[in-house]
What we know:
The protein has helices at residues 8-39, 82-90, 101-104; strands at residues 51-55, 62-67, 78-80. It is an alpha+beta fold.
Amino acid sequence: MNDLPPDLPRLRTLETWLTLHLDQVRAAITAAEQQEREQHGGQARPAPPEWLIEPGLNRTAPLAVHVGGCWRAGKRSRGVTRDQALRAITEGVPACTHCRPDTELGIIDG
């Protein structure tokens, strides 16, 4: 950097000026990060469940098993564990024909 002054007093003045501006930039970054956290609820959303069971209208017999995030899963679907999804399919609950949880679970059609 050839544009710097050669004497110590002016170099110290420049250092002070740069430090003040750096502090201002860091304060602006902190404020922007805080605003972003507030806009997004402060926390990231939890990951969607890996497996879903869609209940029937009477809530006694499930309609289908889905892979988590399947677009065909109904709004009333609930997250279940892998073992629960596997058990449901082996007990006769239909697997969704779009997301194919039976394939994801390693169940081979007989």
